[in-house]
Structure formats: structure tokens, C-alpha cells
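Hi R.,

Here's the chain you asked about this morning:
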Amino acid sequence: MLPPIVIETFPPNRLGWLEVIRPTIDDSMLREIAEGDYGDRADEHQAALRPIRDHGRLPERFEWVPGEVLELIRYSDPTDLSWKPGRSGLEGQRMRGFACAALLATEIELGDLDETSLAQGLRCEMDLGGSEHRALAGFLTYAIERVPTDFPWLAASGLLLAALRTGESEVAGGAVRALAEWIETDEQVAEALHAEREYHSFGHEQGYYLELGQEMRLRAARQSHADLQSILFKVAAQLEE
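And the predicted structure, written out as C-alpha cells:
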């Protein structure tokens, strides 16, 4: 169970992250997502994506249409100008964020939290900001409370990172400190961390966690409280491993 101050600061919200991102996807971006599988069945993909973009209406589970193109865009790299499918720059980040938010919000209702979608979503949020960070934190509090027995350790460290991104004022308010202490001391989280280190996940192998760890390390260095800084450095080291 997350500390009450964390839940109060970042109220659990399954769809909040998607709600913030979907209005940023214009028709040309939606079409490009729909064409992500070499243009195959693009019209069908676009028709299935439109209710998600326009109304936040998700299926109970994703079938090939439009799940395949969402998964392909999830793997895009907006920092690589030559990467296809997807775009480069901020529009590419938003497209990848939209895909990850839709996939995760659907998966969590099935009792799953895909670590690749989460890692890629966290990587998008590095270049977004404002309400996106708070919305992602709210999704992660929902996810952790929804699957409390076997959520990936990345969800806990991702929530910590998203909370830090909302602004250093959150540290003074106590939410980040409480979350950091929970990660270090909660028996269930410690077991999840140990289990995560037993194998190298796809996300680890692809280096998706590395830059998240580097960001955590930079944020840790800014902290004035030595005990909080120590915990953040530990989390950074696990992400970088």
C-alpha cells in the first residue's frame, strides 16, 4: 500500500495520462500512427484509433487492429531522425506517449503492466512536461494499487521519477520523501526489486532504463537532504544496471 500522502498528492487515475495526451494528437499524427505497419490496413487502424483519440474510448483488450500499430509506435525513437514508423522531435514523443498510455490503460484492467510500454512512456515524459508528469504519476498510483502483488519494480521507480518531475516543491511537501522511503523499506517492493534483478528484461536489454537512471541520478544530486539523496542514488543505480 502506497503512503497516504502519495495517493493524496497524485490521486489514482487510470485514464488521466491518456486524457492529457490524446488532444495533442492531430489528424496527420493519427494517420501516421495508423500507417505504422508499412501502411497495411491503415484505414482500419485509423478508424479504430479515432474513438481513442477523440473520446478516450478504449476496448476491453486490443486486437490486431489497432493494437499492432500502437505497439509499433511504442517502440519508436523520436531522437533518431531516420526512425520509422513514427516522427522525430516533440510530435514523435507525443505519438509514442499516446501509444503507451492507451496500451497501459487497457493492460492494467487485465491485471498486467507491460514493462516495455511503461519504460517507453517514461522516456517520452522526459521531453514533455507540465500536466503530463502529474497525470503519469496518477496513472502509476492507480497501477500500483491495482496490481499490488506483482507489479514490476519499474512502476515504483517510475512513480518516483514522475513525482520528481512535477517540481522540486513536491519534495518539501513530503510526497517524494515518503515515496522514496516506501521504496526502500516496504517488504513487498524489496521483493519485487529482487525479482526484477533476477533476469534482464527486454527493456533492460534495449537500454530503455539507462537514461531513466541517468535522469534519476541528476535529480538525486540536486537534493539537499542526504538521506533522500542516498535513496535516489540507489534507485538510479538499479535503473542503470
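The mean pLDDT is 88.

Let me know if you need anything else.
M.
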